[in-house]
């Protein structure tokens, strides 16, 4: 059996290992529900002057519910069929706190009494539980009625909202149309093209002419001609939904990851493949492609000067999004999902980050991660045994390269059976974990949802009836994955949680998890789910989950349910320890995944074009509310040239999740393998990441309360400058003021950086101050010479960051190291910045155990630090953490004095060219202080 499982895995690899085989995956043209809706849209456009929508809102059905001090609008949508019969679709329109409009439509009569359903097990309802998985666990707060004005007449409903009633929603009843306005200008029109479509229930024996209008086609309504999907039973027949959203006077739209494509989404009108959201296992995916990848976040945003708007499509089924940029005055998008209800939110604000805050208020923000997880992760498929792991661990120290985590892929498990170890290679996991813990290092192991048949875990899953089931007998589904024949845990079944908890418990008897070890964390891979012999390498869509919901309804949220189940188990495992925050990496993700996991972009290749495309991919993930994102440094497949590997490390240090990974057939490529200057430059890059850990951690904390991206596109910083809207090769590290322009091409000796405004920018290559500045009268490009050692960085005037510059072996050993402040005065001679500190591993910060420092610099007055904390005990615990150096870029100073508490002393000043160094100020980071100049600092650029 073991050799059979190897054969299955090898066959899978050979079938698709050279490059992604597009014929294995559907396009819109061979996907029944997409083709039907796309053709409907095309036919409507062709006959737009004669077309009359079969849908209208029954004005007499409108009910206004003001219970509880909020307001909801309920109504009935009527669909008139060709035979003049009708179908009813209940509508609910709600206002959510934070200027969010929600529009929700279900189908009446789907309560279990349908005739002609071709399954005695399947749930008859349209799937309406996506929000259960996608939304944060706290209840949504509806907008108070006092903040809303509305007018209802026979033809439309008008709602005014926002602090100054600056937003307006106008719902027309016939034809149905929803317009959202800002300051009385249309920004978004829903159903502008009348593509609203709900394929109502009908059975296979019904007369088609009674259900299909002349604009519709019947392609694959009750069957699937796609080669690998011919066994799909479609027990409920066609259930698709479709709707258009037109963005007025916008030129760019963003989001809807995951695709290996540009930051600003492209026109798809003449393509067989719109952007597709369907979580699949794709090896060696292509760049500049709209093919689906491992994750799906159905959140699309648009930005222009003065206003940003977003559409969040709350649906976990297979989804296509067409983007039409043919009209220079608008961008039209057509959303098509295989089934479920129509449920979407419209979010609007004046700045791009307003949308992140709104989206996070619904789906949750990323939980503040353990600090170690922001350090460097070393992974490959596979490290062979305990000796190999500890040898790699010691070599990092030998070459003075900091790192925090080593990873084990599937080969650690005995015959790929999760919750077991290969006894000859890993005889004592607790001993290995303790050795790593000695220097603050961690271990991550892989556990996937496929469970090999014929051993205790799969036997228990089957006996407890917590597996994904096949449709005919509603019994455990069997498919193939890495171990060979496998079953899949149904993590959407609430009864599976207690079982998963038991497998992850903290106990002396739990030898698998190293007994009482707390430095072991998890990698949930293959959770799309990947099924080697399934259609599109995934689960058959008519498989059944808890509640008898079809897999087609929940597909994109399954991976989320799996890593959330793991997270809940680890929360319980670690709750009584000091290291309470779990770390989980997931490959499959959905709206809400940001709450509990990091993600990476999957199986990339060791080529320059992948290094380049990964920047917009990670930026897009941040736009879509999933900031803890990264990519395999060096490329998963192949053997990168030394220059490429070096440049990849110099880019990878900016990924919020920073991990090197490689395929089992790739040569060893740890940073010391290349040798010479290449190893030197990789070491320097990793050390720079560690010096900036305090900056990254501060940005993650900022995200955790506001949704702010950890790395953000240029247009977030300069939304008034439309020239930056399509820039995808340079970006900011959050609100730190650090502007990064990585080198992503071979043999480069010069980089071009776009300066987006007239502010001062200080050259800060490799994280080191220089004597060069750039200040342009208007936005323009500027050039810099670069060598292989260089990481092009600029520091924007008006910013302050706090770094830790001493080499340590891991982040844990840096905890009490001193800080260096870097101050970049703006053209007015001012700057500000923040630093957030907590213990980096517990949830104590939720009860106030943190220190937040605000720095303010003024050329004419001085430098101040103001500390906020909710715990005097924690504040006192870091009284020995100091600021050891202050660097003021582009300034000079004569004398001044420091005041902290009752202590007053003179500053020690050293001038280094245009920069000022204040040495050994001996300032405690945990208390207020200020430096007052005796004489004015003269800013050399003023």
TrEMBL record:
Protein name per Swiss-Prot or TrEMBL: Glucosidase II subunit alpha
Identify the SUPFAM superfamilies for this entry. Answer: (Trans)glycosidases, Galactose mutarotase-like, Glycosyl hydrolase domain
Q: Which residues form the Glycosyl hydrolase family 31 C-terminal domain?
A: 707-801
Cellular location of this protein? Endoplasmic reticulum
Pathway listed: Glycan metabolism; N-glycan metabolism
| Main localisation | endoplasmic reticulum
Query: A Pfam family name for this chain?
Result: Glyco_hydro_31_2nd
Name the PANTHER family on file: ALPHA-GLUCOSIDASE, BCDNA.GH04962
Gene Ontology MF term list: carbohydrate binding; Glc2Man9GlcNAc2 oligosaccharide glucosidase activity; glucan 1,3-alpha-glucosidase activity
Where is the Glycoside hydrolase family 31 TIM barrel domain positioned along the sequence? 367-698
- Which processes are annotated in GO (biological process)? fungal-type cell wall beta-glucan biosynthetic process; N-glycan processing
Q: Please report which protein family the annotation says this sequence is part of.
A: Belongs to the glycosyl hydrolase 31 family.
Q: Name one GO cellular component term.
A: endoplasmic reticulum lumen
Cleavable signal peptide = 1-19
Q: Which keywords does this Swiss-Prot/TrEMBL entry list?
A: Endoplasmic reticulum, Glycoprotein, Glycosidase, Hydrolase, Signal
Q: Where is the Glycoside hydrolase family 31 N-terminal domain?
A: 90-322
InterPro entries the record matches = Gal_mutarotase_sf_dom, GH, Glyco_hydro_31_C, Glyco_hydro_31_N_dom, Glyco_hydro_31_TIM, Glyco_hydro_b
The protein's organism comes out as Hyphopichia burtonii NRRL Y-1933
């Amino acid at each position: 059996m073991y050799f059979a499982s190897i054969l299955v895995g090898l066959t899978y690899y050979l079938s698709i290992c050279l490059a992604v085989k597009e014929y294995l995956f559907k396009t819109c043209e061979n996907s029944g529900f997409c083709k039907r809706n796309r053709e409907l849209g095309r036919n409507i456009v062709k006959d737009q002057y004669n077309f009359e929508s079969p849908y209208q809102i029954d004005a007499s059905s409108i009910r206004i519910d003001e219970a509880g001090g909020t307001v909801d609008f309920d109504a009935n949508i009527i669909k008139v069929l060709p035979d003049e019969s009708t179908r009813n679709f209940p509508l609910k329109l709600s206002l959510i706190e934070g200027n969010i409009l929600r529009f929700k439509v279900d189908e009446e009569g789907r309560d279990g009494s349908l005739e002609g359903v071709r399954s005695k097990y399947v749930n008859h309802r349209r799937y309406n539980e996506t929000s259960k998985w996608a939304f944060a666990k706290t209840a949504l707060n509806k907008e108070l009625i006092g903040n809303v004005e509305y007018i209802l007449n026979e033809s439309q409903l008008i709602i005014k909202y926002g602090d100054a009633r600056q937003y307006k929603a106008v719902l027309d009843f016939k034809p149905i149309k929803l317009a959202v306005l800002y300051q009385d200008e249309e920004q978004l029109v829903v159903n502008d093209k009348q593509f609203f479509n709900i394929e109502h229930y009908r059975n296979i024996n019904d007369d088609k002419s009674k259900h299909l209008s002349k604009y519709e086609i019947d392609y694959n309504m009750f069957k699937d001609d796609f080669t690998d999907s011919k066994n799909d039973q479609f027990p409920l027949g066609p259930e698709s939904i479709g709707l258009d959203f037109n963005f007025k006077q916008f030129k760019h739209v963003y989001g809807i990851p995951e695709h290996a494509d540009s930051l600003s989404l492209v026109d798809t009108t003449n393509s067989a493949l719109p952007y597709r959201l369907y979580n699949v296992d794709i090896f060696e995916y292509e760049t500049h492609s709209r093919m689906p990848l491992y994750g799906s976040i159905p959140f699309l945003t648009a930005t222009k000067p003065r206003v940003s708007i977003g559409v969040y499509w709350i649906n976990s089924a297979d989804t296509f999004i067409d983007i039409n940029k043919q009209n220079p005055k608008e961008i039209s998008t057509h959303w098509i999902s295989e089934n479920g209800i129509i449920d979407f939110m419209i979010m609007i604000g004046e700045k791009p980050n307003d949308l992140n805050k709104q989206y996070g208020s619904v789906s949750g923000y990323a939980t503040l991660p353990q600090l170690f997880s922001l350090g460097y992760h070393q992974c490959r498929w596979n490290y062979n045994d305990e000796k190999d792991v500890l040898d790699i661990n010691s070599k990092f120290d030998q070459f003075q390269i900091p790192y925090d985590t080593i990873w084990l892929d599937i080969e650690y498990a005995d015959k790929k059976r999760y919750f077991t170890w290969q006894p000859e290679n890993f005889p004592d996991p607790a001993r290995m974990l303790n050795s790593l813990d000695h220097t603050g290092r961690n271990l991550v192991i892989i556990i996937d949802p496929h469970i090999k048949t014929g051993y205790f875990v799969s036997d228990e899953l089957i006996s407890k009836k917590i597996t994904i089931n096949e449709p005919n007998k509603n019994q455990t589904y069997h498919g193939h994955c890495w171990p060979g024949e496998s079953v899949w845990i149904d993590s959407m079944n609430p009864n599976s949680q207690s079982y998963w908890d038991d497998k992850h418990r903290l106990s002396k008897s739990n030898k698998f998890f190293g007994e009482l070890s707390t430095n072991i964390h998890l990698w949930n891979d293959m959770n799309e789910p990947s099924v080697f012999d399934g259609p599109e390498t995934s689960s058959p869509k008519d498989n059944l989950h808890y509640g008898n919901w079809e897999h087609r309804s929940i597909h994109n949220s399954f991976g989320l349910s799996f890593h959330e189940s793991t997270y809940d188990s680890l929360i319980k495992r670690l709750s009584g320890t000091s290291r309470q925050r779990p770390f989980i990496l997931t490959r499959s993700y959905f709206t809400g995944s940001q709450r509990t996991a990091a993600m990476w972009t999957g199986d990339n290749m060791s080529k320059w074009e992948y290094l380049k495309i990964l920047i917009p991919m990670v930026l897009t993930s941040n736009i879509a509310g999933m900031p803890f994102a990264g990519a395999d440094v060096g490329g998963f497949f192949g053997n990168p040239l030394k220059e490429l590997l070096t440049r990849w490390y110099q880019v990878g240090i900016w990924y919020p999740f920073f991990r090197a990974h490689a395929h089992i057939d790739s040569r060893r490529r740890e940073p010391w393998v290349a040798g010479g200057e290449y190893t030197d430059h990789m070491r320097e890059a990793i050390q720079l990441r560690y010096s900036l850990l305090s900056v990254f951690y501060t940005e993650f904390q900022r995200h955790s309360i506001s949704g702010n991206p950890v790395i953000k596109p240029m247009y977030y910083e300069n939304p008034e400058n439309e020239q930056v809207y399509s820039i995808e090769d340079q970006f900011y590290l959050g609100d730190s003021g650090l502007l990064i322009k990585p080198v992503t091409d071979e043999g480069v000796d010069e980089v071009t950086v776009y300066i987006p405004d007239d502010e001062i920018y200080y050259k800060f290559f490799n994280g080191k101050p220089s004597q060069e500045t750039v200040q342009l009268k208007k936005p323009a490009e500027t050039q810099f010479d670069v060598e292989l050692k260089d990481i092009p960085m600029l520091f924007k005037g008006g910013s302050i960051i706090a770094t830790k510059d001493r080499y340590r072996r891991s982040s844990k050993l840096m905890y009490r190291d001193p800080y260096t402040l870097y101050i970049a005065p703006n053209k007015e001679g001012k700057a500000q910045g923040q630093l957030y500190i907590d213990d980096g591993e517990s949830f104590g910060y939720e009860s106030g155990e943190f220190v937040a420092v605000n720095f303010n610099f003024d050329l004419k007055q001085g430098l101040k630090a103001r500390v906020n904390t909710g715990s005097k005990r924690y504040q006192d615990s870091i009284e020995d953490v100091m600021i050891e150096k202050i660097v003021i870029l582009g300034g000079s100073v004569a004398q001044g004095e420091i005041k902290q508490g009752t202590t007053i002393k003179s500053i020690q000043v050293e001038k280094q060219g245009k920069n000022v160094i204040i040495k050994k100020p001996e300032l405690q980071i945990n208390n207020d202080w200020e430096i007052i100049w005796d004489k004015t600092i003269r800013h050399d650029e003023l």
